[in-house]
Specification:
The chain has 247 residues and is α+β, with helices and mostly antiparallel strands. It is built from 11 helices and 5 strands; from the N terminus they run H-H-E-E-H-H-E-H-H-E-E-H-H-H-H-H. The chain has a 5-stranded antiparallel β-sheet with strand order 2-1-5-4-3, sandwiched between helices. The longest helix has 34 residues.
C-alpha cells in the first residue's frame, strides 16, 4: 500500500514539475525507494517537420558515461534493443551480458569496471511520438536479486515512466518558448504569414539584416534546420497563440 501511495506522490510531483531538475529529483527518489544506486533517464522526442531532440540525465559513474558515449556503445547494447521490442522491464547483470559478441562484451566489461554490477532497463512510448528510456543499476558491493528488483521495477517504474517522459518534454518545450524574445517571435510570425525579410523589416521598423539574425536565432532555439521547420514547431508549441493580427 505504501508503494502505491508513493507512486501517486511521484506522478503528482511530475505533473507539477516546473523544470527538468525537479523531474530528475522525482526519478532520484524513485531510484532510492526501489533500492538502486544509479540511474539514467533519457527522452528522444520527434515532431513532424522537426529533427529528433534529446534530453536526459544520469548519475552513473562519470568515466563510464564518457566512455559509453565516446565509443557509441549503445549501438551494441542488446538490452536496449530488447527493451525497444518488448516495452517491458529487462533485468540484467554483468555475467549475463558479457556472453554476447566481442563488441557487446566491451560494453559490459566497461560497465563492470566502473562499479555497476547489475540493473534493470525499460522504455516507454510517449504521446509526442518519441520514447523515454530509464536504466537503474546497483553497485558491485551490494547484494542484488535480479528477479526481486525487476519485479518491483515493473510495478513502480513502468507505471510512471511515461509520466517522466511527458514531464521532461513539457518543461523542455516551456524552456524553449521562454528563450524566444518577443521580437524573434514577431519576425517568425510574419514569416509564417508569407512575408520575406525585407517586408518583415518594413513592418517592424528594423533592417532586413536584423530580421535575418532573429530568424536564425529562432531556428537554433527551436532546433530546426529550416524556417519551415521552425514555423511548424512554433505553431505546435503555441508560440503564436496570442497573436491575432494575421492579415
Amino acid at each position: 500500500m505504501r508503494m502505491i501511495e508513493r507512486q501517486r506522490e511521484w506522478i503528482a510531483a511530475l505533473r507539477e514539475a516546473g523544470n527538468a531538475d525537479e523531474v530528475y529529483s522525482v526519478v532520484d527518489r524513485c531510484r532510492d525507494a526501489l533500492g538502486f544506486e544509479f540511474y539514467g533517464v533519457g527522452v528522444r522526442f520527434s515532431e513532424p517537420g522537426s529533427p529528433p531532440r534529446f534530453v536526459g540525465h544520469a548519475n552513473w559513474p562519470s568515466r563510464l558515461m564518457e566512455r559509453y558515449a565516446a565509443e557509441a556503445f549503445y549501438r551494441d547494447d542488446l538490452v536496449y534493443r530488447r527493451c525497444l521490442e518488448t516495452r517491458e522491464p529487462v533485468g540484467w547483470d554483468y555475467l549475463d551480458r558479457v556472453r554476447g559478441a566481442a563488441s557487446y562484451r566491451r560494453v559490459h566489461e566497461t560497465i563492470d569496471a566502473h562499479g555497476v554490477r547489475a540493473g534493470v532497463t525499460l522504455i516507454a512510448r510517449l504521446t509526442c511520438g518519441g520514447d523515454v528510456t530509464l536504466a537503474m543499476g546497483v553497485d558491485k558491493r551490494r547484494a542484488y536479486s535480479r528477479s526481486a528488483h525487476v519485479s518491483r521495477a515493473a510495478g513502480s517504474i513502468a507505471l510512471g515512466l511515461a509520466e517522466v517522459g511527458e514531464a521532461l518534454v513539457r518543461v523542455e518545450n516551456a524552456q524553449v518558448l521562454k528563450s524566444i524574445s518577443s521580437s524573434e517571435r514577431d519576425c517568425l510570425y510574419w514569416t509564417a504569414a508569407g512575408k520575406i525579410a525585407k517586408q518583415v523589416a518594413a513592418i517592424r521598423g528594423s533592417s532586413p539584416g536584423t530580421v535575418k539574425k532573429q530568424l536564425k536565432s529562432c531556428k537554433e532555439k527551436l532546433s530546426a534546420s529550416t524556417l519551415s521547420e521552425a514555423v511548424c514547431r512554433a505553431h505546435r508549441l503555441g508560440l503564436f497563440e496570442n497573436q491575432t493580427w494575421l492579415p
